[in-house]
Structures are given as structure tokens and as C-alpha cells.
Amino acid sequence: MKNFKRMAVVLIILSGTAFYLPGQTLKERIDQAKEIKVYFRNKDIEHNPNTSGDPYSQKLGTGCERFNETTPLPAEYIDAVKQVTDLLNKGFNTTVFVAGDLTYLSSLPVDYHGELDWIRLKEPLTFFVSTSGHYSVNNFPKTGKENTMEVESYLYVFSVTAGKLKTLSSTLLAWKQTSPVRTQNCDDYAWFVKNFPATSLAERFKESVIEKTTKFIEKEMTSYDKAMKKKK
What we know:
This protein is an alpha/beta fold and about 230 residues long. It is built from seven helices and six strands.
């Protein structure tokens, strides 16, 4: 087995491409790569009226209709998640992480679920940060309609080996919500914009992105250190 692993390492060096062995830590995969792209998808703040409610919780249907207007995600949130690339390079002690082409990302093919088809991207290791926001309405038996704004961001790590996609990690970087405002009626887009300034969660959102990305790196580095000790 040891001879096989040595041979595989030689092949990696000769070929100049990433070939991942079973059981490798994420840090080991990163160290083998010449470049790893971090893709960002920043979606508009959309309306989520929860019209029919959730039968598995205490939330009732609101009866509100979804409005089509959306608010572009403010630059403060986009700049906050852009930091992830630098945080990954610093935390993993490397320079291989670069921002992926944002315009190219939007043109990627989708799979039958409507999700981005990472297999057809043909990159062995990919980091993806997805950020979105919602103007949400929830209806509770005792308190009635509660309106909020939320902004959330997730970090995903995908690998593609032999044409098969695997999610190596899924990390919530931030989920921030305003204090609820209770109303009796179904409110329109203008009401939400007035009562929930789009940038009001930006500072707390940024702090969370830095904190959660740092914790993600620390966890992966701990796994790496343990794996290296076993190999000694």
C-alpha cells in the first residue's frame, strides 16, 4: 500500500494535475492544487410570504401573495463574502485560492434539479459561496403575522473525481435576521423597503462570515494535523 501511494504521488508530480487519494484531508488536497477557484453567487433579496405555512411546525399560512420586486444585494454583503478568498489563503497557508469568474458562473449549465452542474465545470476541487436574502412573513397562532428581513451565506466545497460529484463540506457562514415587525395585513414591497433598510444587517453579517470561515479552517487544520501524526 505504501508503494502504491508513493507511485501515485510521483504520477501527480509528473502529470501536474490534481489526483486525490482516498482518505485525504482537505488541506492535503489544497496543497496538491495549483489553483482553486472560489465562486460567488449573490442573489437579490426576495419576498418569502410563506403563503401556505409549514405543516411540520407551529407556523400557520399567511395567505399573503408573493410580490415580484426584489432588492439587489448591497455591496456591503458582497464585499464581506469576498474576504473568504483571502481568509482561505491565509488560514491554509497557501496562495492557490483565486476568485472565479462571476460572469462565467452565471452561464454554467444546471443539472436536472436546477442547480449549477459542477461536474461539467471539470474542476477537481471547487469552493462556492452562495449568499441570499429574504423579506419573510410568518404567521404564528399567538402573535400573528411577523415580518423580518434575513441575509444568509453558505460555503460549499465540492470535489469531482472520475465524473462523480461529492460535497466535502457545507458550512453556514452567516444567518442574520432583523427584529420582527408585527402587522395584521399583507404588506407590499414599498413597506418592506421602508421598514427594513437593506444594509442594516451588514456589520453583523461581516463579523459572522469572518468568524465562521476561521472556524471552518481551524477544523480542517485540526483534521490535517491528526492525519499527519498518524502517518509518522
